[in-house]
Amino acid sequence: MADTGVLETLLQRVEKVDDGVDSLDVATSLGVDHQVIVGAVKSLQALGDVISAELRSSKHWELTEEGTEIAEQGSHESRVFSCIPLEGLAQSELMKLPFGKIGFSKAMSNKWIRVDKAHEGGPRIFRTVESIEDQVREKLFLVQKGNSTQLEEKEKNELKKRKLLSEVTVKSYWITKGNSFSTTITKQETELTPEMIASGNWKEKKFKPYNFEAMGVAPDCGHLHPLMKVRTQFRQIFLEMGFTEMPTNNFIESSFWNFDSLFQPQQHPARDQHDTFFLSDPAHAHQFPQDYLERVKKVHSEGGYGSQGYKYDWKIEEAQKNILRTHTTAVSARMLYKLAQQKFTPVKYFSIDRVFRNETLDATHLAEFHQIEGVVADYGLTLGDLMGVLHQFFTKLGLKKWVEVGNSGVFRPEMLLPMGLPEGVSVIAWGLSLERPTMIKYGINNIRELVGHKVNLQMVYDSPICRNPPTHF
Amino acid sequence: MPTVGVKRDLLFKALGRSYTDEEFDELCFEFGLELDEITSEKEIISREQGDTKASGASDVILYKIDVPANRYDLLCLEGLVRGLQVFKNKLEAPQYKRVSPLSGEPQKLIITKETEAVRPHAVAAVLRNITFTQERYDSFIELQEKLHQNICRKRSLVAIGTHDLDTISGPFTYTAKPPGDISFKPLNQTKEYTATQLMSLYKTDSHLRHYLHIIEDKPVYPVIYDSNGVVLSMPPIINGDHSKISLKTKNVFIECTATDQTKAKTVLDMMVTMFSEYCAQPFTVEEAEVVYPDGKTCIYPELAYRKEKLSSKFINQKVGINESTEKIAQLLTRMCLLSQATGVGDEIEVEIPPTRSDVIHACDIMEDAAIAYGFNNITRTTPRTYTVANQFPLNKLTELLRQDLAAAGFTEALNFALCSQEDIADKLGKKISEMRAVHISNPKTAEFQVARTTLLPGLLKTIAANRKMPLPLKLFEISDVVLKDETKGRHSTYFPGRCADIFVRGKNVGRLGVLHPDVINRFELTMPCSALEMDIEPFL
């Protein structure tokens, strides 16, 4: 809030006139910086309709730095005149002085001095008149005092050419009486303070109205990443449905568990360099349950367990290759194998974790993403059961067009029987990516804006809570 | 999933009726396919190369249909139509027969031992008295291309060669020779080339250059000759121009060379079952004899029919329906799996034709029964599996920590597990050899060289990418890192005198401190930065 004194003075000025006052003029007449008056105008505006202030643009003449110097010390030409004694001054001497060069030519054209070129000892300068009037300085004084209107345009432009004056556009306010004009100011409070509450004097105070156009200050807080928020929700859904979380804290997997145990043949395109990340170090895995491995080899190459098999040469070298897992189904396989080594009990498993694909990258595909997987193993499960579980899961999610979002199916006997799971046991499974529903939910089109180090943190700061079922999907 | 493009009007003509796009979409869905796109050649070119290039192209409507990856019998119009007609009970699935030649001996393909080093297997067959039209011819060529891309694994496992039998004469010899010794006029060329010259010539061919590597560096290249020394083909690259098929061709000799015998047989069966439809005696295929280096012989194509017995109870139980044995047999027959109740209890005998090499277990038969029944007709049920859920302790702890870290005012980041060697070593003032990191073979870019051994670089890169954000920036991440075994690092990552190890019950679980200015510079940051990194597994 500007100084009350200035405010009241300004109001008094406005009161005296019928039309209005210009803020620049007020500043000049009070001898204060224009910004002080501008501040006063703003403060008065905040109080309501006390004054009306119209922004104006006006051109205003000002002294340049050089012009200010001359106003102080006199023009170059007058200084030249002053330093020439009765006996004259050698031109060479004069030129040594800083104001010499310009001053000399100006003084010459004003006919204040003359040069005797033929003088012995070099050209010599003499006064031609007794005294002079430093008109340039006078003019500059006028402008300095704010009386530039007393000069003719021609005169001002000449000084402008000499770079002593410049024309500046100045914004000023045209201040007139407002609807609630008064010369007294009642101070408005901004905040309720503890003192006011204690003393009760809030009753006598006026409070400044809120500016609802202004942004508030965001409180300092921490934020969770939206993808992780959605992950938390999915985790919650699975736990509510009785699914136990699988241990997926291993990004590295052997081809055996990732492909062979799932009955995916070794010549399958997904196992090639273009889709899978192979490791150069450590390149191979060596620990496998040997009997189980033999059974897997047999079912691939010869068949068995009611299957024709693929009839190709299964190679252990392929199975030993270490990779970055392409799906978390490799973990499901490990869990089912483990389950088969003891007396069978029905289970429901889930996992949500990172997988890796060496595919072409684009707006919706990255090399790393998160897979959500659910598995149910029990006697006598049917396709009807698979559809029922999917329906329940996606209903809890609030997803309408769920068909296109994920994959589902029944694990093959060629996968389950070599593990040692009992014949009547069926295992149903389904999966989807975590990124896709998150991008839909948060309206993000490019996956790079969601995952990785180039993500805009403002997006993380601003992302709302993840609710199910959502209002749109 | 492979996509088959068929001309809509041809398709409807073969199906004997028209459909609206919605009706056909529905039909595809019922059958287990997906109508992916309705377009035209003109539209495709326009989209890929711009409108000017597309101006002369065809406006004819094309249906692009997605087909399951193992259904080689649905990769051409002929197979699709056959499958759909049988599914709609408009047609009985044909019985494919291998027949002897009307007169004389079967065509012979003699394999010499030289092929062992490069491409040992071959099979062959003859399509007798076939009639081609432009459409049939185009479909014939297109199927070979589709099979080459899918089951043949881009010709590396199997390559198909088709020839006008009337331009060549058997017996045919499949051998392998040094590239300089092979010379012939290849398809669409006007003069003879040696194989060596062809390898150079095709390096700039946008289509063929992808297959050169299959034989390029071998000492001998595969080649098939007829009895007069005419080159039929140099698999898997190119056929000879002499024996090329035209619309006038009446008799076709098909040879498939391969590194996988089983796949070669499947591919040959697929070619002949699909196109024998156009032979004077439809669905008959004339046999050919393959003679092996050891003198043994074998007749092809196999065209084997296989029988499996299963119970309707099995189908009902697995699908979750309750249909009679006869009904189930009917459902399966509609899927080209000709079935009959045997009369012994609820037993069904299913005949699996050579076009269904994808059916390798009774569960595949069950799947087809479900498709024919209609997935949308299956009642949704809930498994009565009672289970109590457990959280994985590490994840449970992580969730609790995440909440409290955010409550403490930190923002969660999510960074990539793969990064450059520099990120986890040099930039942190360490040597990669000391890091015991896991390395990726043939990374496409430096960003895929190693798996992260620490979470710190990811966070620093996040800060560097968010320079304009107001300070302070407080970030955290709780996630997996990949370690070959424990790293005992020097603390050159931190500013001397401003770091400390964290001990819990006598065990070093991590460290914290002010980052060394060199580290800050290497990550292109400017502000001082403190970091804490800790293993949470000891807290489980």
UniProtKB/TrEMBL annotation, chain A:
Entry GO MF terms: ATP binding; metal ion binding; phenylalanine-tRNA ligase activity; tRNA binding
Enzyme class name: ligase
Listed PROSITE patterns: AA_TRNA_LIGASE_II
Cell location: Cytoplasm
Keyword annotations: Acetylation, Aminoacyl-tRNA synthetase, ATP-binding, Cytoplasm, Ligase, Magnesium, Metal-binding, Nucleotide-binding, Phosphoprotein, Protein biosynthesis
Signal peptide: none
CDD domains linked to this entry: PheRS_alpha_core
Any one of the GO CC terms: cytosol
Family: Belongs to the class-II aminoacyl-tRNA synthetase family. Phe-tRNA synthetase alpha subunit type 2 subfamily.
Protein name (Swiss-Prot/TrEMBL): Phenylalanine--tRNA ligase alpha subunit
Species this protein is from: Oreochromis niloticus (Nile tilapia)
Encoding gene per record: FARSA
TrEMBL record, chain B:
Swiss-Prot/TrEMBL GO biological process terms: phenylalanyl-tRNA aminoacylation
Keyword annotations of the record: Aminoacyl-tRNA synthetase, ATP-binding, Cytoplasm, Ligase, Magnesium, Metal-binding, Nucleotide-binding, Protein biosynthesis
Gene3D superfamilies (alphabetical): 3.30.56.10, Bira Bifunctional Protein, Domain 2, Phenylalanyl-trna Synthetase, Chain B, domain 3
PROSITE patterns to which the protein is assigned, alphabetical: B5 (PS51483)
Localization (cell): Cytoplasm
MF GO annotations: ATP binding; magnesium ion binding; phenylalanine-tRNA ligase activity; RNA binding
TM regions (residue ranges): none
Residue intervals of the B5 domain: 303-380
SUPFAM superfamilies: Class II aaRS and biotin synthetases, PheT/TilS domain, Putative DNA-binding domain
PANTHER family given in the database record: PHENYLALANINE--TRNA LIGASE BETA SUBUNIT (PTHR10947:SF0), PHENYLALANYL-TRNA SYNTHETASE BETA CHAIN AND LEUCINE-RICH REPEAT-CONTAINING PROTEIN 47 (PTHR10947)
Name this protein carries in UniProt: Phenylalanine--tRNA ligase beta subunit
Origin organism lineage: Eukaryota, Metazoa, Chordata, Craniata, Vertebrata
Gene that produces this protein: FARSB
